Amino acid sequence: MFCKNPHILQRLHMHTGILDSYRDLVHVVRQGTRPWLSLKWSGYDVEDDVLDAVLTMCGDTLEELNLMWCDQLTDESLRYIFRVCTNMRRLDLRKLDVLPGSLIALRRSGGPTHITHLGLNTACTAMTDDDLLQVIPALPSLVDIDLGWNSHLKNDSIKSLLVNCPHLERAGLEGLKHVTAEPFWPLVVGVSAESSDDWIPLTKESMPAMKDQSNVYIRRSVVYGRSLRYLNLTSCEYVDDEELMTIARATYGSLEILDYYCALMTPDGRVRVQ
Q1: pLDDT in tens, 25-47
Q2: 230 forms bridges with which residues in the sheet?
């Protein structure tokens, strides 16, 4: 047994290793007398039956689950997570091989709709815009999402995130080969000097002319992506850096943008190497 007092635990964090018996995990969870809040098992070869047994006992109280690199799990277990973990806040599935249908089950199961942090980097490489568009309505509380290297995603799903997730602060979109700057232009708008209610959408084509109009101010949108503070576009080869720099300047430092080379774009027009 690797834990002497399992009854007092509420969090169990383990990273990359081998246990003599994964049944020990089940035993530790079963002995707990307090609500389980967090399980981080990244890098362990946990299999379906072990995870299912653990979640049957504590899934309803669990707020955080990290299964990064747990590549022995199948989609059946992932669907089970979405059914029983109705109080989940943080879910990390990075580096798994998740089928789009399992993610769609997130919405169809009726929960968990309280997720604030979702890690899907390289987790669902077959996921398309249509798949993600079905999942987004189940994520109204989302604050942080990592979609990196799920390379079938395009502009429509990114737009939907920025429209339907009003609390989203961080978006990891690195390696999305089909995404352009188009979903990010609505982050800034032109506002009439006469009326703050009279705002004008900006595009790559309209921005130069807008700058020359003395009665129009350029500022961050208060509707579209209103909470976004960090945007990682590393290795997004179709996102034009010149367009990104224009957007970065117009946000006046309220949004950190990492460009293709993972360099930080600043509102003074400079690029800072990270």
Answers
A1: 777 778 776 788 999 988 888 88
A2: 170, 256
